[in-house]
């Protein structure tokens, strides 16, 4: 059955002129692996908790060299790659998410460029920035990066693969049924970063320039900055792959975790967990860490494994609906590649290295006095005594960035706030301070204007 499905799919895909031969082959291989029923579940009895040799505590790493020339030598081997394929649609924005303004008039991309420029200026290095776009973000990003032409950072862009969405009913590509616009296609997850680096020619270019390691992270993670201690450890210990993990909180119970499995370090995602063990997986007592998606990877190892077609990451099925038609997207995650690399480890890093902005509730935190910005780095305010951030829950009226901004005359002080929940049509004045757990609520018929310069307490 599987062979017939794939043969039929191959004939359809062969007619799709919008994508390259590499993309066609990558797509067919992914679907073939999926229909062959490759095992997604793990044997629960074989899971072991990683030791400190497998998941190394960040605090125990050897300090980075102090000498500027030695630091430059480390940085000369490094490339910074940001996963820039996402749109800001969930926050009501058009275009790449990385151009949403974070604070002080600066976007994610502005901050990223400033950080790398600061490194290059300080140490005389020339760390390049790579942006992996999707077909959704490519055109806009190309225009945006022009404004950095005078920055002390060489910026490269390349696209991840473009795959056709699969119609569930008959397993044909959606573009073959006439849906040739953007809705007919999808980018197949950030696991695609490895073949796309190779197929774009960027991998060979970087290797020819003497680059040996890439630091990969999400463009919306403001904590994902170059860490010289990790870079030093990576090079000194010849690790082909390092995944940054951080202690799990109740907000992170679904995040993938590192395990030792049959003698190798492996990422365990919730989708792979047998149903009877899901609650155990979510426990923060047994599985104490989760993947931040900050990854440090050896470029020569990427080339070796991609050339050998050895990166068979777990397939993540992502069902969608387009104009009433049920479709399927098959995706992979970059973290799942850890098991294919030699001498791969995790490093248990401070929570400060995981500061993603996925919603306006996260945006409120980073725009507030909990953080300061210096040289593009978003730094925790030392006046905040509690190491945890307040838990922010904003109602649907705040979901879109423009609505969120219009409802705050100025961002409230959160230094002494433990939590904020807002329900209803509520507008905040300027100079407001929040202390403890604050809950603001009005009924659906009411509106509340909170006056300027007051303190709201629990």
UniProtKB/TrEMBL annotation:
Subcellular location field: Cytoplasm
| Nucleotidyltransferase in keyword set | yes
Does the record carry Nucleotidyltransferase as a key word? yes
InterPro entries attached here?
Answer: Nucleotide-diphossugar_trans, UDPGP_fam, UDPGP_trans
Please list the residues that bind substrate: 190
Instruction: Give the UniProt family note.
Output: Belongs to the UDPGP type 1 family.
* PANTHER family listed in its UniProt record: PTHR43511
Q: What is this protein called?
A: UTP--glucose-1-phosphate uridylyltransferase
- Species of the source: Pyrus pyrifolia (Chinese pear)
């Amino acid at each position: 059955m599987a062979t017939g499905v794939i043969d039929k799919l191959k004939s359809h895909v062969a007619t799709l002129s919008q994508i390259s031969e590499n993309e066609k082959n990558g797509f067919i291989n992914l679907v073939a692996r999926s229909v062959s029923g490759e095992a997604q579940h793990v044997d629960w009895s074989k899971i072991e908790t990683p030791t400190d040799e497998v998941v190394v505590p960040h605090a125990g790493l050897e300090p980075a060299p102090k000498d500027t020339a030695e630091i430059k030598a480390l940085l000369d081997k490094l490339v910074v790659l940001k996963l820039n394929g996402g749109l800001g649609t969930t926050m009501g924005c058009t275009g790449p998410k990385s151009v949403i303004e974070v604070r002080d008039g600066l976007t994610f991309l502005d901050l990223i460029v400033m950080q790398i420029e600061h490194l290059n200026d300080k140490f005389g290095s020339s760390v390049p920035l790579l942006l992996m776009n999707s077909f959704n973000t490519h055109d806009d990003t190309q225009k945006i990066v022009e404004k950095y032409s005078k920055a002390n950072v060489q910026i490269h862009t390349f696209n991840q693969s473009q795959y056709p969405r699969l119609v569930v009913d008959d397993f044909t590509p959606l573009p073959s049924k006439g849906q040739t616009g953007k809705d007919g296609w999808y980018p197949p997850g950030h696991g695609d970063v490895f073949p796309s680096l190779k197929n774009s020619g960027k991998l060979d270019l970087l290797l020819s320039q003497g680059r040996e390691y890439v630091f990969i992270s999400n463009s919306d993670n403001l904590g994902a900055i170059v860490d010289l201690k990790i870079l030093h450890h990576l090079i000194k210990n010849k690790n082909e792959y390092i995944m940054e993990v951080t202690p799990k909180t109740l907000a992170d119970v679904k995040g993938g975790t590192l395990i030792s499995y049959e003698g190798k370090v492996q990422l365990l995602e919730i989708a792979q967990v047998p149903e009877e063990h899901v609650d155990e997986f979510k426990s923060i007592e047994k599985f104490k860490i989760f993947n931040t998606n900050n990854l440090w990877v050896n470029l020569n190892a990427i080339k070796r494994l991609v050339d050998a077609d050895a990166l068979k990451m777990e397939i993540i099925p992502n069902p969608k609906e387009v104009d009433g038609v049920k479709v399927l997207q098959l995706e992979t995650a970059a973290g799942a590649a850890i098991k294919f690399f030699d001498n791969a480890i995790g490093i248990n890093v401070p929570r400060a290295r995981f500061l993603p902005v996925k919603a306006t509730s996260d945006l409120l935190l980073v725009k507030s006095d909990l953080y300061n910005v210096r040289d593009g780095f978003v730094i925790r305010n030392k006046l905040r005594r509690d190491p945890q951030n307040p838990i922010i829950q904003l109602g649907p009226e705040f979901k879109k960035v423009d609505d969120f901004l219009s409802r705050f005359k100025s961002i409230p002080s959160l230094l002494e706030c433990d939590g904020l929940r807002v329900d209803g049509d509520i507008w905040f004045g300027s100079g407001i301070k929040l202390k403890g757990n604050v809950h603001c609520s009005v009924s659906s018929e009411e509106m509340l204007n909170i006056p300027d310069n007051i303190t709201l307490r629990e």
